[in-house]
Amino acid sequence: METESKTTTLFKDLVSGLVVFLVALPLCLGVALASNAPLMSGILAGIIGGIIVGFLSGSHTSVSGPAAGLTAVVAAQIALLDGNFESFLLVVFLAGVIQVVIGLLQGGSIAEFFPTSVIKGLLSAIGIILILKQIPHLFGHDTDPEGEMSFQQPDHENTFSELLAMTGDLHWGASVIGIASLVLLVIYGRISFFKKLNIPGPLIAVLFGTGVKFAYDQFMPGTNWQIGSSHLVQLPIAGSISEFTGFMTMADFSQLANPIVYTGAITVALVASLETLLNLEAVDKLDPQQRTSPPNRELVAQGAGNMVGGLIGAIPVTSVIIRSSVNINSGGRTKAAAIFHGFLLLFCVSMLPQILNQIPLSCLAAILILTGVKLASPHLFKEMWRGGWNEFIPFIVTTSAIVLTDLLIGILIGLGVSIAFILKNSLHRPIRRIMEKHVSGNVLRIQLANQVTFLNRGALNRVFDEIQDGEHVLIDASQTDYIDPDVRHLIRDFDEVTAPARGISVSLVGFKDDYEFEDKVQYVDYSNRDVQEKMTPSQALQLMLDGNERFQSGRQISRNLGRQVSSTAGGQFPIAVVLSCIDSRTPAELIFDMGLGDIFSVRVAGNVTSPQVLGSMEYGCSQAGSKLLLVVGHTRCGAVTAAVDLACSHQNATKATGCEHIDSIVDEVDHSIDDSIIERVSKTQAEQKNEIVDDVARMNVQHTVDKIREQSKVLRNMEINREIAIVGAMYDVSTGQVDVITPPIS
Q1: What are the distances in angstroms from CA 640 to CA 426, 432, 695?
Q2: Of 186, 282, 366, 522, whose CA is between 20 and 30 Å from 202?
Q3: CA 131 centroid distance within chain
Q4: Going along 272-350, which residue ranges are E strands?
Q5: Which pLDDT tens digit goes with each residue over 513-539?
Q6: What digits encode the pLDDT tens for the residues 297-331?
């Protein structure tokens, strides 16, 4: 992303602030009306949210002001105070004090506990509400308050019944302006020429709508097309500065002894803080630059704003998602946009109310509808659907609940559903059960989650009940940060009482020292003498293949390497000898998920044999007791590729590989290359050569197995006597899978 100049950024902020100001005007008035508060209190809240909160906030894109989500709370508190607005202003002031204290005490982190599905549900719900609430205004049906966002409206209608009521109250002049403005916004956003102008479409829509309104006044006076004041922005008009300041009201501090004031202040502070934090997180997700806003600083800023509001006659302010979304969509880059919108409110309301009262509500409705479409885009619903039921259901419930109730109730319902899913997952899948096939037998590994609370106790108890008598259980807490005391008591009772009575062997690993559990691990993660003596060659092969399956799936056995080192220091009892290539991608201990002391690993380029290699394998089988001799070739083998290149180019080994002493290895691999291979290479494209190299690698493994039987009488006799099995296999470096290509002699 190219860095913008400061001039460009400032210009975009000023233009965005102008658009936000135009949208904020009717919303401030509507919220005040819906709250049963004086209209000017909403305008003052918008000014404070822009200037005071804007200066103090650490957010780049959030815009604050009177919030629709607080209308019910504000109206209820005013009613409890017998309609005394000055007493309610004391509630606002004290709520601001509480918010500042919460912020200073670092209480803003509560927002981190709200799931992403709830936050995205909030965004989509606001988008849907904007669309549904603004459609009537788009067609000139302006009887309900512009800022009312709750499902139930003060005019005794609801979101859906208002749509029906609209059909009998259309205003053709306002409808034409609204629809034309919406079309203009859509077209304007898709034509590159207009994008180069760097002027937001919403500003063009407002100028267009206002111009059409004046055209109606000029050419269609007295007709149904002319737009009256009820379809326009309606600001209180002050005749002078002193008259404007007369709109301001001081909090009534004589009510400090009234307990209702304190309960109201706590209610407003908590609701406003919660709404602010959730909106702040939602706005950060909309920010194209994905910047993070400091929540504690935001609470302090909001608290300071509400303290000022209580002193001059404003209703409470919060971070507001609608104005913030308009700010982002209009190109706002920094908090200068929010501050500028506040100064515009102050200047225009005090100096230019007559001009602002000429703006049709229908063109503002078009701006908000387009903002709603962006918030509740089909892409968001598809994204949440792809996330599965655990994400989609809380998301859709949050969206529906907010649309059908109000912002705060809807969020709490969505949070409740999210918690229900969390509890469900905790109760049914709090732990991971893995049946591990160790060299000394099967072990049921119970891997505890990162946080094990009392909610997990029932599920863990059921797991213990399902364990078969005589089994070996490994309880693994190595990835666990916290275990509830109730769960610790359950584990201790199982280990000390239940398991011994049922013949169950219990191993404990990874428990913190302060839990007073001693690590107790049976010798299950490496081979010992008893295991080696009882194991058959076929069992050894199966154990190796099982280990490779674990390696592929990422479910490697939990091992204590330090204990293995000390326990194997006195002797080794390997179960297999593995002859593999020196290729860095083929470490035998890893690809077979074996422990320390489980295998002899012989690594030679090209898996070729020599007297020294044969001697090592004879020692591993006849002296150390290994039950399996496994020759493991691999795909994309460099040594085999060199041999193929040599055979096809008829060059000497030094010229083919650039290495001085690789002749013997290449010569050995060359036995697996015949004329048909050379002919295939000559007819094959370079990118298809790997298939031929892999075929030669397989034949080379077979050749090595045959040569071992031919050149080592010791190993051949052990195989004939069923003391060992000699097996050839191929490892695929792209998938991690080992396939047997020369099975044991039956």
Answers
A1: 52, 43, 10
A2: 282
A3: 27
A4: 317-320
A5: 777 776 665 555 556 677 777 788 998
A6: 999 999 999 999 999 999 999 998 888 988 998 88
Q: Name residue, tokens 């515009």.
A: 344
Question: Token digits for 700?
Answer: 């080379």
CB 361 within 8 A of CB 231: yes
For the chain, the C-alpha Rg in angstroms (whole number) is: 38
CA distances from 693 to 542, 633, 640, 680 (A): 28, 11, 6, 11
DSSP state of 520: B
**DSSP letter assigned to residue 513:** G
Q: Within 10 A of 33 (CB to CB), how many other CB atoms are there?
A: 20
Closest by alpha carbon to 306, among 33, 36, 73, 16?
A: 73
**Residue 260 one-letter amino acid:** I
3-state secondary structure of 505: strand
Q: What tokens appear for 431 in the block?
A: 């732990």
Q: How much of the chain exceeds pLDDT 70, in percent?
A: 85
Report the distance separating Cα 675 and Cα 696, nearest Å. 12
The CA–CA distances, whole Å, from 342 to 22, 50, 55, 141, 291 equal 11, 4, 10, 28, 22
φ/ψ of 46, rounded to 5, equals -65, -40
Cα torsion 639, 642, 647, 653 to 10°: value is -100
**541-568: per-residue pLDDT in tens?**
988 898 898 888 877 765 666 666 766 7
Please say whether the beta carbons of 133 and 406 come within 8 A.
no
pLDDT, averaged across the chain: 83
Report pTM: 0.59
Nearest Cα neighbor of 348 from 335, 357, 336, 361 is: 357
Q: What stretch of H or E contains 169?
A: none
By the 8 A CB rule, do 338 and 50 touch?
A: yes
